[in-house]
Amino acid sequence: MNLSVVTMQMSSTPKVEENLLWLSEQFSRLQTTENCLVVLPECFACFGGAENEQARIAEDYGNGPIQDFIAHQARKFNLWIVAGSMPLKIKDSELVYASSLLFSPEGQCQARYNKMHLFDVDVADATGQYRESATTQAGSSITVVETPFAKIGLSICYDVRFPELYRKLQAEGAEIICVPSAFTYVTGQAHWQVLMRARAIENQCFVVAPNQTGTHPNGRQTWGRSVVVDPWGEIVHQHSEQKGYLQSKIDLDRVRQVRSKMPNLQHRKLF
Ligand SMILES: O=C(O)CNC(=O)[C@H](CS)NC(=O)CCC(=O)C(=O)O
């Protein structure tokens, strides 16, 4: 079965309306076919401002302007949309979940994943210290969701450095794995493409990884180079540093073809 896959590479600012307006312009330009999956980057609605910005724009799950916007766009343009990540409130907590939501073309939210691995890392860039856990609660369960075209595994950004998560997603049947990201320029330059290709090759899945790009208002720099990789590790398409979208047709039979010739998933010894 064929699927049209879109990576939306953004240079998001702290202003939600600005980012959503830009997105609605992009959506209106897409060529929509029967099945079209659009994946947005991590923090698509608000990025690159103050430390408390995610708490500021956080919504209750199932209720809020950002989720309404995505549901509306999904219906209007007949799209499956993975809303990369957005902050969702937690009852009686200052912290938020960084959640990735899958919307159907009917505008229904069909799956939710809360980012498990938080980026508490020192990077040799202008920001220096990243402490995601200061504002974010780590998730504790994995998400694989069945759609009419494929089973989709959800993950976010720094998760990509933990291959055991992807083994689990694959074991649960994932054929497409989304990795919406806000990878830093420095770590992206070193590791971005290798990590995305490795997860695709070892799990024989399509990997769809839209990234943030450019210099954001708080000085944070992200790597761009959003990418779609096929189950053999070949690049289906890759962005430069510019914001915008790329759209490609993929053949989902590729997953079965690659797995039947090289059944390395059945040759596992450990887990
Ligand atoms: O905190 C926010 O504002 C939004 N969240 C992010 O930007 C997150 C956590 S700081 N970024 C990453 O996970 C980058 C991972 C990365 O770059 C790597 O693994 O090398």
TrEMBL record:
Family matches, as PROSITE patterns: CN_HYDROLASE (PS50263), UPF0012 (PS01227)
One GO MF term on file is: hydrolase activity
Outline the extent of the CN hydrolase domain. Answer: 1-252
Which PANTHER family does this chain map to? DEAMINATED GLUTATHIONE AMIDASE, NITRILASE-RELATED
Q: Which UniProt keywords apply?
A: Hydrolase
Pfam families for the chain: CN_hydrolase
Q: Which CDD domains match?
A: nit
Q: What is this protein called?
A: Carbon-nitrogen hydrolase family protein
**InterPro entries according to UniProt:** C-N_Hydrolase, C-N_Hydrolase_sf, Nit1/2_C-N_Hydrolase, UPF0012_CS
Q: Which Gene3D superfamilies match?
A: Carbon-nitrogen hydrolase
Question: What transmembrane ranges does the database entry give?
Answer: none
